[in-house]
Amino acid sequence: MRFSRQGRYFRLNRNKNAIELQSAFVILPGGVSIMRNALAAVLLTVALAILSSATAQPANPVEGLARLSDLSIDMQWFLSYQAGESDGASFNQFALKRGYVNIKKKINGTFSGRITTDITTDREGDGEGDVEMRLKYLYLKTQLPSLGVFHKPYLEFGLVHRPWIDFEQAINIYRVQGTMFLERNDVINSGDFGVVLMSLFGGEMDRDYKKTVNGSFPGKYGSMAFGVFNGGG
Asked: Which residue, 43, 135, 152, 202, could crosslink 220 as a Cys pair with Cβ 3.0–4.6 Å?
């Protein structure tokens, strides 16, 4: 039996044997040290820009409140209760499947940044049972002007979204059960080091559609994403 919660969604599954959850870790391939050091420097610059913009000493209280209005911090978690049998042994436990802490900061009308930590429980190896944390996203986002059918295009540079997974997670109400099919089978994961261009096609759906159906990538004729990534993770 498994009881999972994510936001307002609840799901209760009954299985003869409980399904073992496995964590996916990004493993970056080897590369030219200069490129790797340059990317690390850029990511550090993005992180410092977000933090310094949010914590810089304001000239007056009003300016300080204005800076905080462009800063958002939110959390998302996947908690579960599990009971069943695995390899002939019974278990009965609460588990942290995944937890995210998002820090987003609008730097100005064009640039914004995001830092997201990924917290999970190690399921194998010497550290089995330990709570671990890694970076899921750390990128600089540049908003671009609309051009023709391309509506609200933008660039992300750093540890960025990869196409499809983020969209699928937003529209799948069974996200509470675990990772998406492609990520679970090691075809593609949700983030990687690189640069990605995303855009809506043909304008944007109206407010009622985004509220009652889905507001993720709400292009009238769809959306697109094109990126270059390290891969191998």
From this structure: 202
State the average pLDDT over residues 56-63: 61
The pairing of strands 111-121 and 131-143 is: antiparallel
CA distance 117 to 119: 6
Tell me how far apart the alpha carbons of residues 54 and 128 are, in angstroms, rounded to a whole number.
37
Distance separating alpha carbons of residues 185 and 202, to the nearest angstrom: 33
Other beta carbons within 10 Å of 198:
23
Three-class secondary structure of residue 233 per DSSP: coil
- In this predicted structure, the answer to whether residue 32 has a pLDDT above a threshold of 80 is no
Which of 196, 134, 141, 211 lies closest to 164, judged by CA?
196
For range 5-32, the mean pLDDT:
37
On average, the pLDDT of the chain sits at 76
